[in-house]
Amino acid sequence: MNESREVEVLVVGAGQAGLSSAYHLQRSGFAPDRDFVVLDHSPAPGGAWQFRWPSLTYGKVHGMYALPGMELTDADPGRPSAEVIGEYFDRYERAFGLRVRRPVDVRAVHEGDGGRLLVETPDGTWSTRALINATGTWDRPFWPRYPGQETFRGRQLHTAQYSGPEEFAGQRVVVVGGGASGTQHLLELAPYAAATTWVTRRPPVFREGPFGQEAGRAAVALVEERVRQGLPPRSVVSVTGLPLNDAVRQGLADGVLEAQPMFDRITPDGVAWDDGRQVTADVILWATGFRAALDHLRPLRLREPGGGIRVEGTRAVADPRVHLVGYGPSASTIGANRAGRAAVRDIRRLLAEEQPVAA
Q1: Measured between alpha carbons, how far is 223 from 247 in angstroms, rounded to an integer?
Q2: What angle do helix axes 246-254 and 180-189 make, rounded to 10 degrees?
Q3: Is the pLDDT score of 206 beyond 60?
Q4: Of 87-101, 155-169, 196-210, 295-309, which gets the smallest average pLDDT?
Q5: d(CA 172, CA 259)
Q6: Any alpha helices (H) in the chain, and if so which ranges?
Q7: What is the pTM of this model?
Q8: In this structure, what DSSP letter does residue 17 have?
Q9: Which CA distances in Å does 36 have to 26, 27, 135, 209?
Q10: Strands 117-121, 124-133: parallel, antiparallel or unpaired by DSSP?
């Protein structure tokens, strides 16, 4: 690659949000590699899905929604989701000729000359008039800190490092976190582990019955209000509750999904509460979620005092050239599709306004 190349739009990330954005760019008349480019740091198609544990089969996936323009049909629910979705994303990229460049790490985005943004990578610098950031969260697992954490003699790992339940056979496992990953881990581990203990900061909320459009809009609105205020977003799933399916009902009946309040400290042999209770553990599995991977945008100083980036729709309020797709309310798969279309519409308007008027 040349030391510096110019494009109209640069997309960072090729998960659901990035591919949706690339699709809508192409549909709007932008040509891949000429007018826009997609950079992805992952080694293969599939976004974060390619890193999910093998026992997370496609049938267990929480709300996967098809990319625009191509349905995901006839997928075997018993196959690992990493394989199903990785193959689907690969077919999608080739079908629409999106020409994703990988693996390319985006190190930083800086202000350039003439109102352009400079995107630094190990292979050189890209100069762009607009940026669609679709980097998701997988690269930033969140590890809470608790007193005594460094003294624990067992193993600590995060969901991002989980590879399946078999390696925990005969071990006593504490699972931390009240989201979908925590419940999935517990249901998988129970037949293998010697014992499991579930601890959550807040009592888990299980959702009974269908999740309709009105409830979905209300959940998205709650997340949207946070990013509008410049606060770090919560996931849409965190405000919708956990769906009750047959496996979850069985886990509740068996006592596997009986949540304990958050422990107060970690001991060399497990976890402890101030009321004197203790649990001995060989493993602490932190199913504590992820944070938005946005460190490369730090030179643009987009963050608000509240810790998040204030966003209207997908546009960063502090810099209209930057759109965040898959951030906050658009973090769900269906939300990412809609947000990709909205971001492209706004970018087209922005670039048209910047075009010089002929004399």
Answers
A1: 28
A2: 60
A3: yes
A4: 196-210
A5: 16
A6: 16-27, 81-95, 180-189, 213-228, 236-240, 246-254, 333-354
A7: 0.88
A8: H
A9: 9, 12, 17, 43
A10: antiparallel
Can you spell out the DSSP letters for 98-109?
Answer: ---B-S----EE
Q: Report the distance separating Cα 146 and Cα 44, nearest Å.
A: 36
Q: How many residues does the chain have?
A: 359
Burial 299-314 (b: 16+ CB within 10 A, else e): ebebbeeeebbbbebb
Q: What is the DSSP letter of 231?
A: P
d(C-alpha 107, C-alpha 12), whole Å: 11
Helix or strand (DSSP H, E) at 195? strand 195-200
Q: At residue 166, what is the residue type?
A: E
Check the CA dihedral 41-42-47-49 and report its sign. negative
**Residue-level pLDDT at 213:** 53
Q: How far is CA 42 from CA 14, 25, 39, 138, 334, in A?
A: 8, 21, 9, 11, 22
Other beta carbons within 10 Å of 1: 11
Contact 171, 285 (CB under 8 A): no
**Residue pLDDT, tens place only, 98-143:** 999 999 999 999 999 999 999 999 989 999 999 999 999 999 999 9
What residues have CB less than 8 Å from 288, skipping those under 6 apart? 141, 142, 143, 144, 158, 159, 176, 177
Residue 238 has pLDDT above 70, yes or no: no
Choose among 98, 104, 94: nearest CA to 43: 104
Q: Residue 119 forms beta bridges with which residues?
A: 109, 126
* 80, 119, 270, 273 from 172: Cα distances, Å: 26, 46, 9, 17
Q: What sign does the CA torsion over 135, 136, 138, 140 have?
A: positive
Per-residue pLDDT band at 55 (split at 50, 70, 90): confident
